[in-house]
Specification:
The structure is a single chain. The protein is of the alpha/beta class. The chain has one domain. The longest helix has 11 residues. The N and C termini lie far apart (27 Å).
Length: 104
């Protein structure tokens, strides 16, 4: 995990890959929250909160993962984030959210 730098909408923290996030959630036995932020430059970034710590989603190369379009981001989250607690989508005009069902 490497340091986050210059991420809008979140304090500086560390980067985490999706596989590291899954291992951490399994080890801690808890869910994680997902926040997708639309940055001023037009890109989308994802922040995970687990055990009161915030992590930016990392690529395998250690860079902050960014999406240019919302649809691929939502496809990624739907495929890889089944153990989420809350999921929030932050746009310039508001926030959309959903919570996981208890049996999820």
């Amino acid at each position: 995990m490497s340091e986050l730098q210059g991420l809008s909408g979140a304090p500086a923290g560390t980067l985490i890959t999706i596989s590291e996030l899954h291992r951490l959630a399994t080890f801690l036995g808890c869910r994680y929250d997902v926040d997708a932020h639309h940055e001023a430059n037009g890109h989308w970034v994802v922040i995970f909160t687990i055990a009161d710590r915030r992590y930016g989603l990392s690529t395998v190369r250690g860079q902050l993962r960014r999406w240019r379009r919302l649809e691929p981001l939502l496809t990624f989250l739907n495929a890889h984030c089944q153990r989420h607690g809350a999921m929030r989508l932050h746009t310039g005009s508001g926030t959309f959210s959903r919570s996981a069902s208890p049996d999820n």
